[in-house]
Amino acid sequence: MIDIFLKLLPFFSLVLIGYLFKSKFSFANGFVKYLTRFVLYLSLPAVLLGKISITDYNALVDSSFLLAYLLSITTVMMVSVLICYLCFSKGMKYSLMLGLGGVYGNVGFLAIPVLTVIIGEWVSVPLALILTLDLLILLPVTTFLLQLNSTNSLNNITYTQAFKRSFINPLILSILIGGILSFFQIRLPGVLIHSLDWVGSAAGPCAMFIVGTALYGKDINKKPIAAVSMSVLKLIVTPSIVYLFMSWFSVDREWTIVATLGAAMPCAAVLGVIAAEHKVLVQQASTAVLITTVFSVITIPLLIFTLI
């Protein structure tokens, strides 16, 4: 347990450094914006493209893995939405946002950098598949449902538009291109693989630094019940349900562990942006990002120690 924590310590130290950097320097916003673009548009896509292109195609289309993950997060979200809507008389927008907060985690900026170091670089493949389902199905569908329950017509967006926006995401494009290369067994030149590895090596440190900057300015809300609910769902309930579904579908043990750990990552920072766009649980969503990130310092090492 201590050994795992020590391996994770440099990552969480970078989160703290990012937080302090954002609090001390006035030029931080512009700096972080371009650093985020570097990670999202170049470094992380380089990691995913390089690893997926050399992965056996049959592993990429593992229907049991994909179905188990999709059903597990759908189950958690639907149950939480129904309980919130029926038992506590909350509106549909409120319920949908709470449900999304309970399942949408920081796979790109946290899971991939952290777990590739702790477990091995091969984990980027199952995590990339999880990221694909999140960006192509979870977010567009939830955004569409939120828009259906929105009274602000200026922000209306169709499912097709949301899908297109996700599809042109560099992370998704790198996964798709890597999948095509894997399917046709096309091997990239060694010098290109080396370049992808070199550029991709910056993803982990930069991503953790960005997570720290995203936490600055967030505080615990005076009415934190929704934020605490999202946090409990995200850190405890969702990984437990993902593990159960993976086991029921007889998914490979190693991929089950990676999926569970991916599901146990804290809420994605973009959750606050989505909440602000739809004007629902804005402060609570940001608070959930803060709570889950802080407590993940304990829960992630504990879960890794339990599963591995």
Describe it for me?
The protein is mostly helical. The protein has one domain: Na+/H+ antiporter like fold (Up-down Bundle). The chain is 79% helix and 0% strand. α2 (28-53) packs antiparallel against α11 (203-215) and α4 runs antiparallel to α12 (225-248). It is globular, with a radius of gyration of 19 Å. The model has no long low-confidence stretch (mean pLDDT 87).
Which secondary structure elements does this structure contain, and how are they paired or packed?
Blueprint: H1 2-24, H2 28-53, H3 57-60, H4 63-87, H5 92-103, H6 107-118, H7 124-148, H8 159-167, H9 170-183, H10 190-200, H11 203-215, H12 225-248, H13 253-263, H14 270-278, H15 282-307
Helix pairs in contact: 1-11, 1-15, 2-9, 2-10, 2-11, 4-5, 4-7, 4-12, 5-7, 5-12, 6-7, 6-11, 6-13, 7-8, 12-13, 12-15, 14-15
